[in-house]
Design brief:
20 strands, 7-stranded mixed β-sheet, Quinone Oxidoreductase, Chain A, domain 1, homotetramer, 27% strand, 6-stranded parallel β-sheet, Rossmann fold, 29% helix, alpha/beta, 366 residues
Chain lengths: 366, 366, 366, 366
């Protein structure tokens, strides 16, 4: 069967014709692929730059792809019926020593015993069909099939907000009306992750800023407008102005220089939290002692936030369905390109480089 | 201005022409009514049977109505602009001695210092226009205006599930995939409350039974079918069968005889919880010592669940928007009748008695 | 080696000379017994009245005893050294399917896969020496050896209060100074459990009543006096007076008639919780519908509370050490009798019946 | 009446004879001083180096002292009786706009509306007698009068651990036996704060290292030995060795150079947390991007931890009472010097400089 494969840690990507079907865990559900999404990590692997990426044991290649929607073709599990749409969870643990893994939360694995589909030690989902474990399959309502592929990247953000709100439950962080409406959040970075994060924080009731080093593109501006986000170009206007405003929640999705982190800390209000989501790829943060003094005085928190699991995929699908009703224009702008799997040249091109204005590119198998 | 008024504790309901505008709290937002919903409590007041109902201080009459959508006409609060749709929160606290009230949660008031619009010491919203406090106004997305009136009754259930999940966080109650998909819930009663509760529990990932003393009506059957609920007629099939199945979560919305409660306790699985939502109106529960022995052994909980606040209204609107996308047939069936406020006879009739098959009746002002 | 054995479900108790050493789980620590405590459940087993009691698989007898302190004689586990004092945890799970069991909390076992030392499917600790699993051994500071045996019964109460406080975290239940000092609790029953529960609630900052059907004995009165507890004879003074006072927390430890439970519910204040700890042994609770109405209105909770685990044993030892400093008179009154294991007649007598004024009887092996 | 006063932000300290009694809040309890403790912040004020220190409005002087034990002389509050020992809470909020302040937790004040006795805008407790608000008075058991003064500094640490454990409740952080016994913690700094922190973490079940730039003094070594702490001289042995060991919890109490913070981050294990308690007084942390990558991957947290409130004072007194029983040698070593208030020269000297080996110095008024 047809598949898109890579050879980490070596760069490159190619189409291949697999002889043996891919089978994960119990493998009791046969899934035929309908769609894949492409994300920045796929491209890092293709470029040979994702240090943690590796094939499954005993192989020198890996099926790429961790964003996928498929249709059930066969199933020996009563919970899944042929014809149902499903989405696979990408980080998994089949070992079972870490307590968090045992309770279905390998996002908090302490034993490094997990694998990640299409990335770390487990084949991914850019493949015609494969056999999956029902434990890691999420049902997708056909009514939102057009945007459902976004549930994978969104799941990471659902988990992140769940985690941050859990951390903030150590004091009263809701407002005098019980909501988060008095809380101000800012998301650094306006890529797919930044945009989805901002929409999600807005859904949770926050006042939301989205910050970047440039003015918004047309699509970004329209999304911000419909969803009520404030776009902030911090090379034009100063970071100092942000410090004066003050933020209860700061999210970094830039994956750029670590030097930004100092400023993200300094704009925190008392009891505020900074969530680091994007992996900084260069530079260093130089943080003077008096910044730490204020950090302590203000009871601030910095937390590393990663990886959503099955409950977060389900929540992501709920939110996408909600957005489809209340922000119809926004949801139409989130998928910026659709490529057929048969257009192999275009697929390889998309896996190599991001186009300007891209939010989410998806590949269709049918 | 035109209003529907009652004289609790006396029975009766009538249209009236108010001389003075109604003003709540800061009163900085003028709201023109678009819709009201009618619920069972309204009818209890009309029948003079809601013991806790009373007019505001110094009056012998009360504007009825706690389910409402309006449009902002004037506003001196920057958060609300003319033309926006709003929904008022019905239970409020203007005193501020109880700690839960001070943090915006009069649903957990310990000082009985709250008032309830259209019911207890505060005028309701069946009135042409009135002035409201922005703290208690919830924005309604115009895209879901058709079903948004359901957010008021749904808010109580959002709060209930939030409370139950908080109670259950004292141990691991999520499944081995981190979701609630392995948990079985049953809702007793298939009225508006029972139906909405079942839909909400399904949304949270539970396997959901809905139980009543009769077979489902056609509309109920279709809702159950589209949303994947199991309808159970417990006069036809035995309560004993439910005991064998076992439930992790049991919700009572019947408001019928207290005698049912013993059975609801007995069908609980270990770590299971019974939420009492409907006020039983007659009878008594006779619970033998050995039922309590098993209750203790199984670490069971019974909890009284009431009243949603502003965060729960917001969550209810989110869920309604989601349902509109994924269960379009269900959402169309939830509003079973629309009456014009100008059809005064029909309004009075609807306030006096429930029609067969009714889920939600709404009154339109425009 | 010498052991005290029973033959559940048959009544009776006897001394026996075991040929084979008892070994639990990994069995890497050899423990020589120093002390056992006797509790009501031991006597229920001796009387053949504890329905759930059974020998381990393949045997028709069971070593009795779930309260014990021993000294390490040999150990292949680096965490335990010869000469250290240890206390075994009594409820255990060696199966590992239930998620709560997997994370060390078989007190919340949903799969009924646990065993209980000296009671249910596992030999107990009234034995000269045995081999234990380090996972289930708790270190005992020698400085509080005199009262440490109380840590086993106290562990159940530590768990109970932890659970109740977790349930109450769903709203603000602390006072305006952040403490529990404004909260009023009442414990029904003044046996060992009731007394320890009252002392523990006082330690947590509650105002504490202890209620019984009689006046306090001299020892009870002195404990109440030193620790600042209010003793309440509810046959002399009315239950109605308690209703007027109102309680935020009600604990039942009586194990008497279920009929008391209705009254315990009625004395709850808004947001109050009733913890059922004692297994009622007769009667029934007859609860009219209007009692449930108020229960719901007041957002009350009833919860079944059982079994402490290793963290609760550790906490119990901490609290006993604290009490030894601040309530030296109280701690001296808690051990009401010490019997030598060599006085076999006296041991058998103590295992058959409770003496008046008894709080805790312990058996010494050295 | 006699008092020790300062003139912040100017340096210096002196004895004074106040004409008017000091009165806080309701002032319904007259407290005669028995003891004061001296801490590093007192000396910072005396040296004119605590930037945030200021007198109450309308004055240019401030009574020093935030660690105190007094005896009730008069009281119009039924909760406090003459002859009882009390300890005042030092951070307070009399304004009441911030929600956390309203519920008795000005340690999480967001509005900077609090005052701090003897430091920020409120007279302290180095005064013969004064009138206090019962809300901020904590009862002290006379049985632990000798060490109770430590409850003030310890209260900050109780709050810190409570906060950290709350943050860590977002996943399973307890071990497979439900305890924290498998978790490794390290405290940087071995002054009064570091020592108390280490003892408290040990009490909570952690394996505890205490790290400093030198070998332990004799007293420190004996405390570490009795309480089972591991002392680590990180100038002798490398920080790298700590990185290999890995820590679940790192606490900084040094108040030294911010450069240490980078290393404290690097030694964190997955899911580990760094609590910053000591205000760094110089330098900067230079943190490269790859350190942040691992921080994110490991789901680490950095949190600023400050200030205990009334519940933490009560918990601190409980733990001191416990330690007095189980670590009698340790508790005797914690008070390293006692000075009479009549020895004014010695008092002034102690307020100016710390002696080698000092843990806690206290001043006696009787």
């Amino acid at each position: 069967m047809r598949a898109v494969i890579v050879h980490p840690p070596k760069p490159g990507v190619e189409f291949s014709d697999l002889k043996e079907p891919i089978r994960h865990g119990k493998g009791s559900v046969k899934v035929r692929l309908l769609e894949n999404g492409i994300c920045g990590s796929d491209r890092e692997i293709v470029r040979g730059r994702l240090a943690t990426s590796r094939p499954p044991p005993g192989k020198d290649w890996l099926v790429l792809g961790h964003e996928a929607i498929g249709i059930v073709e066969e199933s020996s599990d009563p919970r899944f019926k042929p014809g149902e749409l499903v989405m696979p969870v990408n980080r998994r643990s089949y070992e079972g020593h870490c307590l968090n893994c045992l309770v279905g939360r390998p996002d908090f694995c302490e034993a490094e015993e997990y694998v990640e589909a299409g990335m770390v030690g487990m084949d991914g989902f850019m493949v015609e069909y494969y056999y999956d474990d029902p434990k890691y399959l999420v049902k997708v309502p056909s009514e939102i099939k057009d945007i459902a592929i976004l549930a994978q990247p969104l799941s990471d953000l659902e988990k992140s907000i769940e985690e941050i709100l859990a951390i903030q439950r150590r004091f009263i962080w809701t407002c005098d009306d019980g909501t988060y409406n008095c809380r101000r959040a800012i998301v650094f970075g306006s890529g797919a992750t930044g945009t989805l994060f901002a929409l999600l924080l807005k859904t949770y009731g926050f006042e939301v800023y989205i910050a970047n080093r440039r003015d918004p593109l047309e699509g970004e501006a329209k999304i911000a407008d419909e969803a009520g986000l404030v776009y902030y170009n911090y090379t034009k206007e100063s970071l100092d102005k942000l410090k004066k405003l003050g933020f209860d929640l700061v999210i970094d999705t830039t994956g750029a220089s670590a030097s930004l982190i100092r400023h993200e800390i300094e704009i925190l209000k008392p009891n505020g939290v900074l969530g680091l989501f994007g992996f900084p790829s260069e530079g260093e943060a130089v943080i003077p002692y008096d910044v730490f003094q204020r950090f302590i005085y203000k009871a601030n928190v910095v937390v590393g936030i990663i990886n959503g699991q099955k409950p977060h995929f389900q929540l992501a699908l709920s939110h996408l369905a909600q957005w489809k009703s209340v922000w119809p224009g926004v949801t139409k702008r989130l998928i910026t390109k659709v490529i057929s799997i048969n257009d192999e040249k275009e697929v390889i091109k998309a896996l190599n480089a991001k186009e300007p204005g891209e939010i989410k590119v998806k590949i269709k198998w049918d």
